[in-house]
Amino acid sequence: xxxxxxxxxxxxxxxxKQATRxxxxxxxxxxxxxxxxxxxITIKMINLCETLGVKVTYVDSMKMLGKAxxxxxxxxxxxxxxx
Length: 83
Hints:
It is a single chain. The chain has helices at residues 2-8, 16-25, 39-52, 62-68, and strands at 12-14, 28-34, 55-59, 77-81. By secondary structure, the protein is α+β, with helices and mostly antiparallel strands. Strands 1-4-2-3 form a four-stranded mixed beta sheet, with helices on both faces. The N and C termini lie far apart (24 Å).
């Protein structure tokens, strides 16, 4: 399950702005996008990842993604960062 990959990641950034920045800087290895997140927010990230060759993995819900990231609120997306 992809939530396990999120939990096992050494460093992860949550939220649209931070995840986008990590992809733009070229240090994100994979981005997790919640299927129930607003497409107006996620489509830009998905296109950016496709352009830069970053793997996109879809997860079922924002609530579950937030929980996997260790936060109390839902997360539309999260990026695994390679340092």
